[in-house]
Amino acid sequence: MAAAPHPTPHLQQHLEQSPEQRRATDIIRLLMLYRPLLDAFVIDFFTEGLWAQLPSAWQPALASATPSQLATLLGGRGSPGAAWPLSLLAFAAAARALAFPRGCPGGSPHPPCQSSHLHPLLRRHIKPKKQHEIQRLGKVGVPPNPLRPPNSPQPLNSPPSPQLLQRLSQATSCERVVDIGAGQGHLSRFLAFGLGLSVTAVDSDGRLVGLAERFDQELLRELGKTRGLGHKRPPRHSLTPRAPKHVAGRLDPAAPWGEFLLPPDPPGHGPAARNPLGGPGGSEDGGRVLVTGLHACGDLSPAMLCHFARSPAVAAVALVGCCYMKLSTAPQPPGCPLGYPLSTSVAALPGHQLSYRAREAACHALEEFEGRLRGDSPHLRAHCYRAVLESLICSADPSKRHLGLQPGRKAHALSFPQYAHLGLPLAGLDPAGVPLDSEAVGAMLKQQHKVVAFCTLGQLLAPAVETLILLDRLLYLREQGFHCALVPLFNPQFSPRNLVLVAARTPLATVLSGLDKDSEDGNSSEDKVSSEDEDLGEAES
Q: What Cα–Cα distance (Å) separates residue 251 from each residue in 203, 254, 318, 480?
Protein backbone atom coordinates (compact mmCIF):
# COMPACT_ATOMS: atom_id res chain seq x y z
CA MET A 1 0.00 0.00 0.00
CA ALA A 2 1.34 3.40 -0.91
CA ALA A 3 2.26 5.70 1.95
CA ALA A 4 -0.07 8.63 2.64
CA PRO A 5 1.29 11.82 1.09
CA HIS A 6 2.88 14.28 3.48
CA PRO A 7 1.15 17.66 3.76
CA THR A 8 2.80 20.49 1.90
CA PRO A 9 4.76 23.03 4.01
CA HIS A 10 2.00 25.58 3.42
CA LEU A 11 -0.72 23.15 4.58
CA GLN A 12 1.36 22.05 7.55
CA GLN A 13 1.79 25.67 8.65
CA HIS A 14 -1.96 26.24 8.27
CA LEU A 15 -2.74 23.18 10.42
CA GLU A 16 -0.38 24.33 13.14
CA GLN A 17 -2.15 27.68 13.49
CA SER A 18 -4.79 28.35 16.13
CA PRO A 19 -8.41 28.60 14.94
CA GLU A 20 -8.17 32.40 15.26
CA GLN A 21 -4.97 32.52 13.20
CA ARG A 22 -6.52 30.31 10.52
CA ARG A 23 -9.58 32.53 10.35
CA ALA A 24 -7.41 35.63 9.99
CA THR A 25 -5.39 33.91 7.25
CA ASP A 26 -8.55 32.90 5.36
CA ILE A 27 -10.05 36.40 5.64
CA ILE A 28 -6.90 37.96 4.22
CA ARG A 29 -6.94 35.51 1.29
CA LEU A 30 -10.55 36.42 0.55
CA LEU A 31 -9.83 40.14 0.75
CA MET A 32 -6.81 39.78 -1.54
CA LEU A 33 -8.99 38.07 -4.15
CA TYR A 34 -11.50 40.93 -4.10
CA ARG A 35 -9.21 43.83 -3.21
CA PRO A 36 -10.49 46.09 -6.06
CA LEU A 37 -14.05 45.64 -4.83
CA LEU A 38 -13.03 46.22 -1.21
CA ASP A 39 -11.04 49.39 -1.91
CA ALA A 40 -13.52 50.98 -4.33
CA PHE A 41 -15.48 54.08 -3.34
CA VAL A 42 -19.10 53.80 -4.46
CA ILE A 43 -19.12 57.50 -5.34
CA ASP A 44 -16.61 56.59 -8.10
CA PHE A 45 -19.12 54.21 -9.71
CA PHE A 46 -19.39 56.32 -12.87
CA THR A 47 -16.08 58.19 -12.85
CA GLU A 48 -14.05 54.96 -12.68
CA GLY A 49 -16.47 52.57 -14.41
CA LEU A 50 -16.76 50.27 -11.42
CA TRP A 51 -19.50 48.11 -12.91
CA ALA A 52 -17.24 46.96 -15.74
CA GLN A 53 -14.65 45.87 -13.16
CA LEU A 54 -16.97 43.22 -11.71
CA PRO A 55 -16.59 39.63 -12.96
CA SER A 56 -18.47 39.42 -16.24
CA ALA A 57 -20.39 36.35 -15.07
CA TRP A 58 -21.87 38.35 -12.19
CA GLN A 59 -23.07 41.38 -14.10
CA PRO A 60 -26.28 40.06 -15.75
CA ALA A 61 -27.60 38.48 -12.54
CA LEU A 62 -26.81 41.54 -10.42
CA ALA A 63 -28.27 43.94 -13.01
CA SER A 64 -31.59 42.10 -13.08
CA ALA A 65 -31.88 41.43 -9.34
CA THR A 66 -34.44 43.27 -7.24
CA PRO A 67 -33.33 44.88 -3.96
CA SER A 68 -35.14 42.14 -2.04
CA GLN A 69 -33.20 39.48 -3.97
CA LEU A 70 -29.95 41.28 -3.22
CA ALA A 71 -30.82 41.03 0.48
CA THR A 72 -30.51 37.25 0.27
CA LEU A 73 -26.82 37.64 -0.64
CA LEU A 74 -26.30 39.29 2.73
CA GLY A 75 -27.85 36.28 4.43
CA GLY A 76 -31.17 37.88 5.22
CA ARG A 77 -34.71 37.21 4.18
CA GLY A 78 -35.64 38.28 0.67
CA SER A 79 -37.44 37.38 -2.51
CA PRO A 80 -36.41 34.09 -4.11
CA GLY A 81 -35.93 33.68 -7.82
CA ALA A 82 -32.51 35.17 -8.53
CA ALA A 83 -30.25 32.81 -10.48
CA TRP A 84 -26.89 33.69 -8.96
CA PRO A 85 -23.68 32.43 -10.61
CA LEU A 86 -21.91 29.78 -8.53
CA SER A 87 -18.83 31.97 -8.17
CA LEU A 88 -20.97 34.78 -6.72
CA LEU A 89 -22.67 32.36 -4.33
CA ALA A 90 -19.27 31.06 -3.23
CA PHE A 91 -18.01 34.60 -2.64
CA ALA A 92 -21.08 35.51 -0.56
CA ALA A 93 -20.94 32.27 1.44
CA ALA A 94 -17.23 32.69 2.20
CA ALA A 95 -17.67 36.31 3.32
CA ARG A 96 -20.55 35.40 5.63
CA ALA A 97 -18.80 32.31 7.06
CA LEU A 98 -15.58 34.15 7.91
CA ALA A 99 -17.26 37.05 9.71
CA PHE A 100 -17.93 36.82 13.44
CA PRO A 101 -21.53 35.92 14.32
CA ARG A 102 -23.20 39.15 15.35
CA GLY A 103 -26.01 37.66 17.42
CA CYS A 104 -29.67 37.26 16.64
CA PRO A 105 -31.18 40.73 16.27
CA GLY A 106 -34.84 39.89 16.86
CA GLY A 107 -37.51 42.42 17.74
CA SER A 108 -37.81 45.89 16.29
CA PRO A 109 -35.08 47.37 14.05
CA HIS A 110 -35.18 50.46 16.28
CA PRO A 111 -34.54 50.72 20.02
CA PRO A 112 -37.56 51.45 22.22
CA CYS A 113 -38.23 55.05 23.12
CA GLN A 114 -37.14 54.31 26.69
CA SER A 115 -35.54 51.30 28.35
CA SER A 116 -37.48 50.03 31.35
CA HIS A 117 -34.28 48.29 32.51
CA LEU A 118 -32.75 51.62 33.53
CA HIS A 119 -33.81 53.81 36.41
CA PRO A 120 -35.69 56.80 34.93
CA LEU A 121 -33.14 59.20 36.42
CA LEU A 122 -30.39 57.33 34.53
CA ARG A 123 -32.32 57.68 31.28
CA ARG A 124 -32.11 61.45 31.34
CA HIS A 125 -30.07 63.04 28.53
CA ILE A 126 -29.50 59.61 26.95
CA LYS A 127 -30.76 58.54 23.53
CA PRO A 128 -32.49 55.13 23.34
CA LYS A 129 -29.58 53.51 21.49
CA LYS A 130 -27.14 54.54 24.22
CA GLN A 131 -29.55 53.36 26.91
CA HIS A 132 -29.54 49.92 25.34
CA GLU A 133 -25.74 49.86 25.11
CA ILE A 134 -24.87 50.98 28.63
CA GLN A 135 -27.42 48.66 30.20
CA ARG A 136 -26.08 45.70 28.20
CA LEU A 137 -22.41 46.51 28.81
CA GLY A 138 -23.00 46.96 32.50
CA LYS A 139 -25.04 43.83 33.02
CA VAL A 140 -24.35 41.30 30.25
CA GLY A 141 -22.06 38.29 30.13
CA VAL A 142 -22.13 34.85 28.54
CA PRO A 143 -24.13 31.77 29.59
CA PRO A 144 -22.63 28.30 29.90
CA ASN A 145 -22.52 25.91 26.97
CA PRO A 146 -23.86 22.54 28.16
CA LEU A 147 -22.08 20.80 25.27
CA ARG A 148 -18.64 22.22 26.17
CA PRO A 149 -16.52 20.01 28.44
CA PRO A 150 -15.38 21.50 31.78
CA ASN A 151 -12.13 23.47 31.65
CA SER A 152 -12.17 23.53 27.83
CA PRO A 153 -11.18 26.76 26.03
CA GLN A 154 -13.86 29.43 25.89
CA PRO A 155 -15.36 29.65 22.36
CA LEU A 156 -14.54 32.75 20.36
CA ASN A 157 -18.16 33.87 20.23
CA SER A 158 -20.92 33.12 22.73
CA PRO A 159 -24.52 34.34 23.05
CA PRO A 160 -25.27 37.03 25.61
CA SER A 161 -26.75 36.72 29.11
CA PRO A 162 -26.71 39.02 32.16
CA GLN A 163 -23.93 40.73 34.13
CA LEU A 164 -20.55 41.30 32.44
CA LEU A 165 -18.90 44.16 34.29
CA GLN A 166 -20.52 43.05 37.52
CA ARG A 167 -19.17 39.52 37.01
CA LEU A 168 -15.74 40.87 36.07
CA SER A 169 -15.76 42.94 39.23
CA GLN A 170 -16.59 39.91 41.35
CA ALA A 171 -14.17 37.53 39.61
CA THR A 172 -11.22 39.93 39.88
CA SER A 173 -12.11 41.36 43.31
CA CYS A 174 -12.15 44.83 41.75
CA GLU A 175 -14.69 47.42 42.78
CA ARG A 176 -13.05 50.24 40.84
CA VAL A 177 -13.74 50.88 37.15
CA VAL A 178 -11.94 53.31 34.85
CA ASP A 179 -14.15 54.35 31.91
CA ILE A 180 -11.95 55.64 29.07
CA GLY A 181 -13.50 58.02 26.54
CA ALA A 182 -16.42 58.53 28.90
CA GLY A 183 -17.85 61.60 27.13
CA GLN A 184 -20.85 62.91 29.07
CA GLY A 185 -20.47 60.08 31.59
CA HIS A 186 -23.59 58.07 30.77
CA LEU A 187 -21.97 54.64 31.20
CA SER A 188 -19.99 55.81 34.25
CA ARG A 189 -23.17 57.15 35.83
CA PHE A 190 -24.93 53.81 35.34
CA LEU A 191 -22.00 51.85 36.79
CA ALA A 192 -21.69 54.17 39.81
CA PHE A 193 -25.29 55.04 40.67
CA GLY A 194 -26.92 51.93 39.22
CA LEU A 195 -24.44 49.17 40.11
CA GLY A 196 -22.71 50.77 43.08
CA LEU A 197 -19.18 50.54 41.63
CA SER A 198 -16.42 53.07 42.28
CA VAL A 199 -15.92 54.70 38.87
CA THR A 200 -13.36 57.10 37.42
CA ALA A 201 -14.45 58.57 34.08
CA VAL A 202 -11.70 59.84 31.74
CA ASP A 203 -12.27 62.00 28.67
CA SER A 204 -9.98 64.20 26.60
CA ASP A 205 -12.57 66.98 26.24
CA GLY A 206 -12.66 69.09 29.39
CA ARG A 207 -15.99 70.56 28.36
CA LEU A 208 -17.61 67.13 28.30
CA VAL A 209 -16.08 66.41 31.70
CA GLY A 210 -17.75 69.55 33.08
CA LEU A 211 -21.07 68.56 31.51
CA ALA A 212 -20.82 65.06 33.00
CA GLU A 213 -20.21 66.51 36.45
CA ARG A 214 -23.26 68.75 36.04
CA PHE A 215 -25.40 65.75 35.11
CA ASP A 216 -24.12 63.91 38.20
CA GLN A 217 -25.10 66.77 40.49
CA GLU A 218 -28.49 67.00 38.80
CA LEU A 219 -29.07 63.29 39.41
CA LEU A 220 -28.00 63.58 43.07
CA ARG A 221 -30.47 66.43 43.61
CA GLU A 222 -33.30 64.50 41.97
CA LEU A 223 -32.40 61.38 43.91
CA GLY A 224 -32.63 63.36 47.16
CA LYS A 225 -36.04 64.69 46.17
CA THR A 226 -37.30 61.21 45.28
CA ARG A 227 -36.23 59.78 48.62
CA GLY A 228 -37.90 62.61 50.44
CA LEU A 229 -41.23 62.06 48.67
CA GLY A 230 -41.75 58.59 50.13
CA HIS A 231 -43.41 57.07 47.05
CA LYS A 232 -46.12 54.54 47.81
CA ARG A 233 -44.76 52.37 45.02
CA PRO A 234 -40.96 52.59 44.92
CA PRO A 235 -39.40 52.10 41.47
CA ARG A 236 -38.08 48.69 40.50
CA HIS A 237 -34.55 50.13 40.20
CA SER A 238 -32.73 51.40 43.27
CA LEU A 239 -29.80 53.81 43.01
CA THR A 240 -26.85 54.44 45.29
CA PRO A 241 -25.83 58.08 45.90
CA ARG A 242 -22.30 57.37 44.66
CA ALA A 243 -21.24 59.67 41.83
CA PRO A 244 -18.33 58.82 39.53
CA LYS A 245 -15.12 60.84 39.64
CA HIS A 246 -14.39 62.67 36.38
CA VAL A 247 -10.89 63.21 35.00
CA ALA A 248 -9.89 65.43 32.06
CA GLY A 249 -7.02 63.86 30.15
CA ARG A 250 -5.89 61.99 27.05
CA LEU A 251 -4.57 58.47 27.05
CA ASP A 252 -0.88 58.45 26.12
CA PRO A 253 -0.13 55.13 24.37
CA ALA A 254 3.63 55.72 24.44
CA ALA A 255 3.90 56.58 28.14
CA PRO A 256 4.91 54.07 30.82
CA TRP A 257 1.83 52.55 32.38
CA GLY A 258 2.33 54.52 35.60
CA GLU A 259 1.93 57.85 33.77
CA PHE A 260 -1.06 57.03 31.58
CA LEU A 261 -2.50 60.52 30.94
CA LEU A 262 -1.68 63.65 28.97
CA PRO A 263 -3.30 67.08 29.48
CA PRO A 264 -6.83 67.37 28.12
CA ASP A 265 -7.96 68.72 24.77
CA PRO A 266 -8.47 71.61 24.16
CA PRO A 267 -5.89 73.28 26.42
CA GLY A 268 -7.23 75.44 29.20
CA HIS A 269 -10.09 73.14 30.16
CA GLY A 270 -8.56 71.78 33.32
CA PRO A 271 -5.29 70.00 34.04
CA ALA A 272 -4.96 66.26 33.80
CA ALA A 273 -5.84 64.82 37.17
CA ARG A 274 -3.85 62.16 38.95
CA ASN A 275 -3.45 58.95 37.00
CA PRO A 276 -6.46 56.75 37.88
CA LEU A 277 -4.21 53.69 37.64
CA GLY A 278 -1.94 55.18 40.28
CA GLY A 279 1.72 54.36 40.71
CA PRO A 280 3.43 50.96 40.75
CA GLY A 281 1.30 48.33 42.41
CA GLY A 282 -2.18 49.56 41.65
CA SER A 283 -4.70 52.36 41.69
CA GLU A 284 -4.98 55.46 43.83
CA ASP A 285 -6.30 53.41 46.77
CA GLY A 286 -3.79 50.58 46.28
CA GLY A 287 -6.21 48.19 44.54
CA ARG A 288 -6.59 46.96 41.00
CA VAL A 289 -9.07 48.32 38.46
CA LEU A 290 -11.23 47.27 35.56
CA VAL A 291 -10.89 49.35 32.39
CA THR A 292 -13.76 49.77 29.98
CA GLY A 293 -14.49 51.78 26.85
CA LEU A 294 -17.81 52.01 25.05
CA HIS A 295 -17.09 52.67 21.36
CA ALA A 296 -13.53 53.84 21.95
CA CYS A 297 -12.67 55.63 18.72
CA GLY A 298 -9.76 54.77 16.41
CA ASP A 299 -6.41 54.34 18.15
CA LEU A 300 -7.96 54.75 21.59
CA SER A 301 -9.02 51.09 21.57
CA PRO A 302 -5.55 49.62 20.87
CA ALA A 303 -4.02 52.14 23.29
CA MET A 304 -6.27 50.79 26.02
CA LEU A 305 -5.24 47.23 25.22
CA CYS A 306 -1.56 48.19 25.32
CA HIS A 307 -1.97 49.77 28.75
CA PHE A 308 -3.81 46.69 29.96
CA ALA A 309 -0.96 44.50 28.72
CA ARG A 310 1.70 46.64 30.43
CA SER A 311 -0.08 47.61 33.63
CA PRO A 312 -0.43 45.14 36.49
CA ALA A 313 -2.90 47.61 37.99
CA VAL A 314 -5.45 46.66 35.30
CA ALA A 315 -7.10 43.35 36.19
CA ALA A 316 -9.41 43.17 33.18
CA VAL A 317 -10.72 45.16 30.24
CA ALA A 318 -14.08 45.25 28.44
CA LEU A 319 -13.86 47.18 25.18
CA VAL A 320 -16.14 48.05 22.28
CA GLY A 321 -14.28 49.74 19.42
CA CYS A 322 -15.43 51.93 16.55
CA CYS A 323 -14.17 54.29 13.80
CA TYR A 324 -11.72 51.77 12.35
CA MET A 325 -10.80 54.17 9.52
CA LYS A 326 -9.06 56.36 12.12
CA LEU A 327 -6.63 53.57 13.09
CA SER A 328 -2.94 54.18 12.50
CA THR A 329 -1.45 51.79 9.96
CA ALA A 330 2.17 52.99 9.85
CA PRO A 331 4.84 50.72 11.40
CA GLN A 332 5.02 51.18 15.17
CA PRO A 333 8.10 51.15 17.46
CA PRO A 334 8.84 47.86 19.24
CA GLY A 335 7.04 47.40 22.54
CA CYS A 336 4.40 50.02 21.76
CA PRO A 337 2.10 48.75 18.98
CA LEU A 338 -0.80 50.97 18.02
CA GLY A 339 -3.52 50.97 15.42
CA TYR A 340 -3.59 48.01 13.02
CA PRO A 341 -2.03 45.48 13.09
CA LEU A 342 -1.35 44.95 16.77
CA SER A 343 -0.47 41.26 16.78
CA THR A 344 2.67 39.70 15.38
CA SER A 345 0.47 36.93 13.97
CA VAL A 346 -1.49 39.22 11.65
CA ALA A 347 1.47 41.49 10.89
CA ALA A 348 3.37 38.46 9.55
CA LEU A 349 0.63 37.51 7.06
CA PRO A 350 1.20 38.71 3.47
CA GLY A 351 -1.59 41.00 2.31
CA HIS A 352 -2.81 41.93 5.80
CA GLN A 353 -2.83 45.65 4.97
CA LEU A 354 -6.20 47.39 5.02
CA SER A 355 -6.83 50.60 3.09
CA TYR A 356 -8.68 53.58 4.53
CA ARG A 357 -11.68 52.63 2.39
CA ALA A 358 -11.67 49.04 3.70
CA ARG A 359 -11.52 50.20 7.31
CA GLU A 360 -14.26 52.73 6.67
CA ALA A 361 -16.46 50.01 5.17
CA ALA A 362 -16.02 47.96 8.35
CA CYS A 363 -17.97 50.66 10.19
CA HIS A 364 -21.10 50.24 8.06
CA ALA A 365 -24.44 49.09 9.44
CA LEU A 366 -25.01 45.79 7.62
CA GLU A 367 -28.37 45.01 9.21
CA GLU A 368 -29.74 48.46 8.40
CA PHE A 369 -28.68 48.16 4.75
CA GLU A 370 -30.20 44.69 4.52
CA GLY A 371 -33.48 46.04 5.89
CA ARG A 372 -33.50 48.78 3.28
CA LEU A 373 -32.99 46.20 0.55
CA ARG A 374 -35.84 44.04 1.81
CA GLY A 375 -38.16 47.04 1.86
CA ASP A 376 -36.84 48.61 -1.35
CA SER A 377 -36.30 51.77 0.71
CA PRO A 378 -36.12 55.14 -1.04
CA HIS A 379 -32.92 55.70 1.00
CA LEU A 380 -31.15 53.47 -1.55
CA ARG A 381 -31.35 56.15 -4.24
CA ALA A 382 -28.98 58.37 -2.25
CA HIS A 383 -26.05 56.11 -3.26
CA CYS A 384 -26.77 56.73 -6.95
CA TYR A 385 -27.34 60.46 -6.39
CA ARG A 386 -23.95 60.83 -4.76
CA ALA A 387 -22.20 58.88 -7.53
CA VAL A 388 -23.82 61.05 -10.21
CA LEU A 389 -22.92 64.19 -8.28
CA GLU A 390 -19.30 63.01 -8.06
CA SER A 391 -19.23 62.53 -11.82
CA LEU A 392 -20.50 66.08 -12.37
CA ILE A 393 -18.01 67.54 -9.89
CA CYS A 394 -15.04 65.72 -11.45
CA SER A 395 -16.10 66.86 -14.92
CA ALA A 396 -16.27 70.48 -13.77
CA ASP A 397 -13.12 70.44 -11.58
CA PRO A 398 -11.10 67.22 -11.09
CA SER A 399 -9.27 68.76 -8.14
CA LYS A 400 -12.50 68.61 -6.10
CA ARG A 401 -12.63 64.82 -6.16
CA HIS A 402 -13.74 62.94 -3.03
CA LEU A 403 -14.92 65.91 -1.02
CA GLY A 404 -16.83 65.07 2.14
CA LEU A 405 -20.15 66.51 1.03
CA GLN A 406 -23.34 66.21 3.07
CA PRO A 407 -26.20 67.63 0.95
CA GLY A 408 -28.72 66.68 3.63
CA ARG A 409 -29.96 63.74 5.67
CA LYS A 410 -33.16 63.50 3.61
CA ALA A 411 -31.48 63.37 0.21
CA HIS A 412 -33.58 60.35 -0.74
CA ALA A 413 -36.72 62.49 -0.56
CA LEU A 414 -35.43 64.96 -3.18
CA SER A 415 -35.33 64.92 -6.93
CA PHE A 416 -31.81 64.78 -8.33
CA PRO A 417 -31.85 68.45 -9.48
CA GLN A 418 -32.86 69.45 -5.93
CA TYR A 419 -30.10 67.28 -4.51
CA ALA A 420 -27.52 68.73 -6.90
CA HIS A 421 -28.54 72.30 -6.08
CA LEU A 422 -27.67 71.52 -2.46
CA GLY A 423 -24.50 69.57 -3.15
CA LEU A 424 -22.72 71.55 -5.87
CA PRO A 425 -22.33 74.76 -3.81
CA LEU A 426 -20.69 72.65 -1.08
CA ALA A 427 -18.03 71.83 -3.67
CA GLY A 428 -17.70 75.49 -4.63
CA LEU A 429 -19.54 75.02 -7.93
CA ASP A 430 -22.46 77.02 -9.35
CA PRO A 431 -25.39 74.72 -10.23
CA ALA A 432 -26.30 77.07 -13.05
CA GLY A 433 -23.12 76.12 -14.83
CA VAL A 434 -23.66 72.35 -14.59
CA PRO A 435 -26.01 70.52 -16.98
CA LEU A 436 -28.36 68.74 -14.58
CA ASP A 437 -30.94 67.71 -17.18
CA SER A 438 -28.59 66.26 -19.79
CA GLU A 439 -29.02 62.84 -21.37
CA ALA A 440 -25.82 61.72 -19.66
CA VAL A 441 -27.24 62.53 -16.23
CA GLY A 442 -30.49 60.74 -17.09
CA ALA A 443 -28.58 57.67 -18.23
CA MET A 444 -26.62 57.53 -14.97
CA LEU A 445 -29.76 57.88 -12.86
CA LYS A 446 -31.28 54.91 -14.68
CA GLN A 447 -28.43 52.74 -13.36
CA GLN A 448 -29.48 53.09 -9.74
CA HIS A 449 -30.09 49.32 -9.54
CA LYS A 450 -26.48 48.67 -10.52
CA VAL A 451 -25.15 51.13 -7.96
CA VAL A 452 -27.22 49.42 -5.26
CA ALA A 453 -25.96 46.00 -6.35
CA PHE A 454 -22.36 47.22 -6.18
CA CYS A 455 -23.00 48.60 -2.68
CA THR A 456 -24.35 45.21 -1.65
CA LEU A 457 -21.11 43.47 -2.62
CA GLY A 458 -19.13 45.92 -0.53
CA GLN A 459 -21.47 45.35 2.41
CA LEU A 460 -20.80 41.62 2.12
CA LEU A 461 -17.08 42.15 2.77
CA ALA A 462 -17.45 44.75 5.53
CA PRO A 463 -18.11 42.31 8.43
CA ALA A 464 -15.10 40.23 7.38
CA VAL A 465 -12.89 43.33 7.59
CA GLU A 466 -14.21 44.15 11.07
CA THR A 467 -13.62 40.53 12.06
CA LEU A 468 -9.99 40.75 10.93
CA ILE A 469 -9.42 43.92 12.97
CA LEU A 470 -10.97 42.37 16.08
CA LEU A 471 -9.10 39.10 15.54
CA ASP A 472 -5.88 41.07 15.43
CA ARG A 473 -6.68 42.56 18.84
CA LEU A 474 -7.65 39.21 20.29
CA LEU A 475 -4.47 37.57 18.98
CA TYR A 476 -2.36 40.41 20.40
CA LEU A 477 -3.79 39.68 23.84
CA ARG A 478 -3.34 35.93 23.41
CA GLU A 479 0.31 36.51 22.46
CA GLN A 480 0.76 38.33 25.78
CA GLY A 481 -0.68 35.35 27.64
CA PHE A 482 -4.05 36.87 28.58
CA HIS A 483 -7.46 35.25 28.64
CA CYS A 484 -9.91 36.87 26.24
CA ALA A 485 -13.15 36.40 24.32
CA LEU A 486 -15.44 38.29 21.96
CA VAL A 487 -19.13 38.58 22.78
CA PRO A 488 -21.94 39.93 20.53
CA LEU A 489 -23.40 42.25 23.13
CA PHE A 490 -25.80 44.73 21.55
CA ASN A 491 -28.65 44.35 19.11
CA PRO A 492 -26.88 44.88 15.75
CA GLN A 493 -29.99 46.30 14.12
CA PHE A 494 -29.57 49.58 15.98
CA SER A 495 -26.05 49.23 17.40
CA PRO A 496 -23.83 48.02 14.52
CA ARG A 497 -20.54 47.93 16.52
CA ASN A 498 -21.89 45.30 18.87
CA LEU A 499 -18.90 43.04 19.64
CA VAL A 500 -17.22 43.50 23.02
CA LEU A 501 -13.68 42.28 23.62
CA VAL A 502 -13.26 40.99 27.17
CA ALA A 503 -9.78 40.20 28.54
CA ALA A 504 -8.36 39.39 31.97
CA ARG A 505 -5.17 38.20 33.65
CA THR A 506 -7.02 35.25 35.17
CA PRO A 507 -9.29 32.66 33.52
CA LEU A 508 -12.65 34.00 32.45
CA ALA A 509 -14.63 30.84 33.17
CA THR A 510 -16.37 32.33 36.20
CA VAL A 511 -17.28 35.42 34.19
CA LEU A 512 -18.26 33.82 30.90
CA SER A 513 -20.10 30.79 32.21
CA GLY A 514 -22.42 29.72 34.99
CA LEU A 515 -24.80 32.62 34.50
CA ASP A 516 -28.55 32.23 34.80
CA LYS A 517 -30.57 33.31 31.83
CA ASP A 518 -32.37 36.58 32.46
CA SER A 519 -35.07 37.01 29.88
CA GLU A 520 -35.63 40.61 30.90
CA ASP A 521 -32.17 41.55 29.63
CA GLY A 522 -32.36 39.89 26.23
CA ASN A 523 -31.52 41.72 23.01
CA SER A 524 -35.13 41.84 21.94
CA SER A 525 -36.81 42.32 25.30
CA GLU A 526 -36.58 46.08 25.84
CA ASP A 527 -40.08 47.19 26.75
CA LYS A 528 -42.00 50.31 27.50
CA VAL A 529 -41.58 52.55 30.51
CA SER A 530 -43.68 51.41 33.45
CA SER A 531 -46.07 53.84 35.10
CA GLU A 532 -44.13 54.05 38.36
CA ASP A 533 -40.98 54.96 36.41
CA GLU A 534 -42.78 57.72 34.56
CA ASP A 535 -43.37 59.49 37.86
CA LEU A 536 -39.62 59.99 38.23
CA GLY A 537 -38.85 61.60 34.91
CA GLU A 538 -38.22 60.95 31.24
CA ALA A 539 -35.04 60.79 29.19
CA GLU A 540 -34.05 63.56 26.85
CA SER A 541 -33.13 62.78 23.29
A: 9, 9, 16, 21
